[in-house]
């Protein structure tokens, strides 16, 4: 296992992959945001930033926490904001630069990540829903050390699950328990696609995407990045339930060789 030092992560950049798990965008009500984004087959829709060291706006606020999630301020009209857990796998990767271009990403660890999001229909950019200040993102303290992401490699037995503990004190499945190989793009295919998007995704006013490659250069060409590779599908409860103060959100990456959800539920109880 690899222990992530949260303070060290302040020097990393953070970005995510949109639309890398079939059905998630539709459940989240965000498929309409991508009507002007062309993608090939089952390819993800694009990449987006959620943390950039030194950025002058909200993206410069360090959002990661191992232990808490802070609710954002209410909307201007006083109505509450709608937050949903986004259960994801995050890749920790070294960045190989060729001038101002990312030439390669070298993953060295992966683990559980909550890319918690505000449901803001019509928000201009994906990043507008992703960072509202400290503790607006959850990340596991311990990651699996792994560089081989091939289908037959060590990640073939890893799964992702998400539970919500609400007013009744009981854990309920919030995300559909999924194998990592169920992602639309994974392994070298995903890494090559991300490198291509960092070079070629420019964004436009008609899409929710941005020029993430240029933003990384402006952030000082960080040597390491944390990449959320996409949220899985929700259960019926997850698709219809927003977070509220006092809830506990749990996202876990585990090996099929371990005892799975039933043991975790017993531990929670």
Uncertain spans: none
Mean pLDDT: 89
H/E element sequence: EEHEEEEEEEEEEHHEHEH
CATH topology: Fumarylacetoacetate hydrolase, domain 2
In CATH, what is the class?
Alpha Beta
What is the helix tally? 5
Total count of strands = 14
CATH architecture: Alpha-Beta Complex
Number of domains: 1
Choose one word for the global shape.
globular
Gyration radius (Cα, Å) is: 17 Å
Structural class: alpha+beta
Q: Helicity, in percent?
A: 10-25%
Reported for the largest beta sheet, the result is: 9 strands, mixed
- The N- to C-terminal Cα distance equals 25 Å
Beta-strand residue percentage: 25-35%
Describe this structure in words.
The protein has about 270 residues and is an alpha+beta fold. The protein has a single domain (about 1-70, about 80-155, about 180-235), classed as Fumarylacetoacetate hydrolase, domain 2. It has five helices and 14 strands. It has helices at about 25, 185-200, 210-220, 235-240, 260-269, and strands at about 1-5, 15-20, 45-50, 65, 85, 85-100, 100-115, 115-120, 135-140, 140-145, 160-165, 170-180, 225-230, 250-255. The strands form three sheets. Strands 1, 2, 3, 4, 6, 7, 9, 10 and 13 form a nine-stranded mixed β-sheet that branches. Strands 12-11-14 form a three-stranded antiparallel β-sheet. A two-stranded antiparallel sheet has the order 5-8. A hairpin with a 2-residue loop joins strand 6 and strand 7. This is Fumarylacetoacetate hydrolase.
């Amino acid at each position: 296992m690899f222990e992530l030092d949260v303070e060290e992560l302040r020097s990393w950049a953070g970005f995510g992959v949109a639309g890398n798990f079939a059905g998630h965008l539709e459940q989240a009500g965000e498929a309409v945001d991508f009507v002007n984004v062309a993608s090939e087959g089952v390819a993800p829709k694009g990449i987006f930033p959620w943390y950039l060291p030194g950025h002058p706006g909200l993206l410069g606020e360090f959002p990661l926490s191992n232990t808490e999630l802070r609710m954002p301020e209410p909307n201007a009209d006083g109505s509450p904001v709608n937050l949903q857990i986004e259960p994801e796998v995050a890749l920790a990767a070294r960045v190989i630069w060729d001038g101002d271009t990312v030439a390669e990403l070298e993953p060295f660890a992966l683990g559980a990540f909550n890319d918690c999001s505000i449901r803001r229909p019509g928000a201009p950019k994906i990043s507008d829903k992703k960072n509202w200040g400290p503790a607006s993102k959850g990340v596991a303290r311990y990651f699996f050390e792994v560089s081989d992401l091939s289908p037959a490699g060590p990640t073939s037995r890893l799964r992702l699950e998400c539970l919500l503990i609400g007013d009744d004190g009981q854990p309920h499945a919030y995300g559909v328990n999924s194998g990592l190989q169920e992602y639309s793009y994974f392994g070298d295919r995903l890494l090559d696609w991300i490198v291509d998007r960092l070079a070629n995704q420019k964004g436009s006013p008609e899409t929710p995407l941005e020029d993430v490659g240029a933003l990384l250069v402006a952030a000082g060409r960080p040597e390491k990045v944390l990449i959320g590779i996409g949220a899985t599908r929700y259960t019926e409860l997850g698709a219809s339930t927003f977070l509220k103060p006092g809830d506990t959100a749990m996202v876990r990456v585990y090996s099929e060789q371990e005892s799975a959800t039933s043991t975790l539920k017993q531990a929670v109880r």
